[in-house]
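User: Good morning. I'm curious how iron/sulfur cluster would be positioned relative to this chain. Could you predict the structure with it bound?
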Amino acid sequence: MTLISKILLRWYTKNGRVLPWRVSPKDLESGQTPDPYKVWVSEIMLQQTTVKTVIPYFQKFIEKWGSIDKLSHASEGEVLAFWAGLGYYARGRNLLKCAKELRDRFNSKIPSDKKNLLGLPGIGEYTASAIRSIAFGEKEVVIDANIERVICRLFKIEKPIQQSKKDIKECASQLFPEFQCGDLAQALMDFANSICKPKNPFCSQCPVSSLCLSFKWNLVESIPAKLTKKNKPTKKGYVFFAILKPNKFLLERRPSKGILGGLLGFPTTKWDVEKNAPSFPFKANWFYTERVVTHQFSHFKLELEIVFGETEYSKFDNSKYLVAERLNFDILSLPTLMRKVYAKADSVFDATLNSNSVT
Ligand code: SF4
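Assistant: Good morning! Here's the predicted structure, ligand included:
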């Protein structure tokens, strides 16, 4: 075990957060074991959602569905209704699918081996490693976005994270010990949250500052390096904002896989590198607005031109499309990109409502 790992484990024993899915190092020593079900549910909820937001949802979830078996008998509607405040619905959908598979194939137990875990819906490399190390005490190198930041700083990895995955993994492998892997993963998560924060880390209170290469070389401010805009490709496409007079518009539920998977939004073309004439998603009186919404994703910049449409067509596939009322629409139900589209399209909406025809 490296000196950094030892110090961080000691720090975690004293300063680790008390979380409802967690068993502290002290309790582990006294014989308590983590509940793999709770570890799994918490890891899924924590994907793209903060600990603070997750805690009350997690507690209510466990009260409602206290076991894999109970969860496996829930309906998709029930789980998604519960998931409403957490967003990223694909996670809720996969959680239920996964519970059914666990019931049918694993006797309602979470398997501890990696191959079986990776074959389950919604469980990728990070989640499988986190479950194995935290719930089963297996040796794993657990790396999430926050741990990546800490590793880059400790080991002075100067290229952007997106270009340093291999180096980060190699450096992280040095830290994760044979035993107490789960504790170290959780130590790193808490340390990233309270000391080695994204902005203005508390280096003066950091227990490993004397071993941190970025601190030594005065590079903390610049690590991890940001991907410069010029390194990012630009993808272009069209987004379709269709109104149904007098005051409604159309949303779609995006496919569960891929970027913004499972979220609400406006229909778009593929986000191709080259802009092409779009194929329209359904019949409408479409016109180009030349209004472009730009959005930065971590790996690329997206430019979507808004195509506005008015339609009386009503045979929409209800499993895909949703008619929204403009007057009581909650823009917060949309991801940021789609909020930008709504904000930009809204004035065209007004102009269209005030005219008799769409040209
Ligand atoms: Fe992070 Fe600063 Fe500690 Fe380095 S010294 S690990 S940058 S908090």
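The longest strand covers residues 285-296. The mean pLDDT is 89.
Let me know if you'd like a different ligand tried.
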